[in-house]
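EI: anyone free to look at a 162-residue chain?
SC: sure, send it
EI:
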Amino acid sequence: MSKLVLEFFAATALTLGAILALTPGVLANDVKVMGAFARASAMPAAKTGAVYMTLTNQGAAPDRLLAITTDAALTAEVHEGLMENSVAKMRPVETLEIPAGGSVDLKPGGFHIMLGSLKAPLKKGDMIMLRLKFERAGMVDVMANVGDLAEDHAHTEGSTGN
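SC: here you go
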């Protein structure tokens, strides 16, 4: 009986090895996340928040941010800030492309991650975890520092958790 078990495990290992060898993919470290931060909620009853960061694609092919999840809010999605007829507006973006060897800044007034239905107000000094799903790089966990409402975050660092 032990020979049968050994043959089963050997066959399973060979099958998994073949599947992994044929699967095209990029390691999550091809996407680097820097400077992740959120702004503190202005009021205790705030239901929305925003997260900012720089996404750098160190891979040889473009990648796309497809989805975001967090325990801090019921929804998290990329929004784009823009001006139309001298009026500031926001609109959701289904996917965000990060060019090969390039970066995309998520910053106030531009692309950003919009948190909807916050589970609790964002408080200065807290950290929130976000899980970013990329088309090629897969899942990347990000810790974002929560700072002041209008604090200069140029030197605030978040981490990718890798």
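EI: Residues 27-147 form a domain with the Immunoglobulin-like fold (CATH 2.60.40.1890).
SC: 👍
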